[in-house]
Amino acid sequence: MDQRETDAQPAWLQTLCETRDLPDDDLLPLLEQTQTASFDAALFAAADRVRRDIYGDAVYIRGLIEFTNICRNDCYYCGIRRSNSCAARYRLDKEDILQCCRTGYALGFRTFVLQGGEDPYFTDARMCDIVSAIRTEFPDCAITLSLGERSYESYEKLFCAGANRYLLRHETANEAHYRQLHPPQLHLQHRMECLLALRKIGYQVGSGFMVGSPFQRGTYLLQDLRFLQKLHPEMIGIGPFLPHADTPFATYPAGSLALTLRLIALLRLMFPYALIPATTALATIDPCGREMGLKAGANVVMPNLSPPSVREKYRLYDNKAASGAEAAESRRLLEAQVAAAGYRVVTAVGDAKREE
Questions:
Q1: Domain range for residue 81?
Q2: Per the confidence metrics, is the pTM higher than 0.85?
Q3: Pairing relation of β-strands 204-211 and 235-240?
Q4: Residue 44 belongs to a domain
Q5: C-alpha dihedral over 153, 158, 161, 165, to 10 degrees?
Q6: What's the structural domain count of the chain?
């Protein structure tokens, strides 16, 4: 960074860029108060410089396979919660999943993300069989799992079967807030233990949280950032809360796009080497949301490789973007949109870089 750029930055932003941290008293106002367009522009520019210093203009693509919308849990915000009798349930079998991978591989994808509800049908034996089959057929690809909370032994078996990465959002690091978002059977402490288990086993770990979920406060977001500093995940996924009509939170307002973008930028400055997706939720809340996320510091996109016949059924929230550049088969459209934003789609496995 040259001296002119440094001189133009407010003191707090210069401190954040240099130390990757701010005191609580400086960070909290960024999470609670509406900021000016010029304020956010300076923050986004700083975040973009950092991501370009480390990752250049690369945007890594991951092929998302949503293989089951059956879930044993009843989270109050989620459209595939157990109590939603309106959801059209489905699950893909092993061959369906492998066919998704074959389609994705032909399109250039080298990371597959298997995401689903906590479906009891997918036992350790079944999941290990699927992961092993993907690893055998696609040895040059990364396999990311997002299957929710499982036992240490289960995570270990899946790792040994060939999975490299695991995504498990903590959703909120505040105990009281966690209880407001989840039924009594689910506990924040157990979720934290799962994340620590994944780290110990050797996964590249992803976590994250919703922005603007019901009852959220700025102090809770501060706790989220502090928790991530302790975990130091390779991947950090955040997105705005979006309501689903068939959940207890149907009438709550959506999270703020502006605050989500600000948090992406803060995360890039606090975790310069992290892989941070511009999520589907961003593209849902604003047609240009993904591009805005990239300009704020995100460097991953996850187009949908699921069979078109089931995409509409995996509805965690209403009005989910599922066509156009969100669809894996529209990779050329995605590349054009990413290029228009000033970046370049990269098909490499794309592990998180490590500080030298």
A1: 50-346
A2: yes
A3: parallel
A4: no
A5: -130
A6: 1
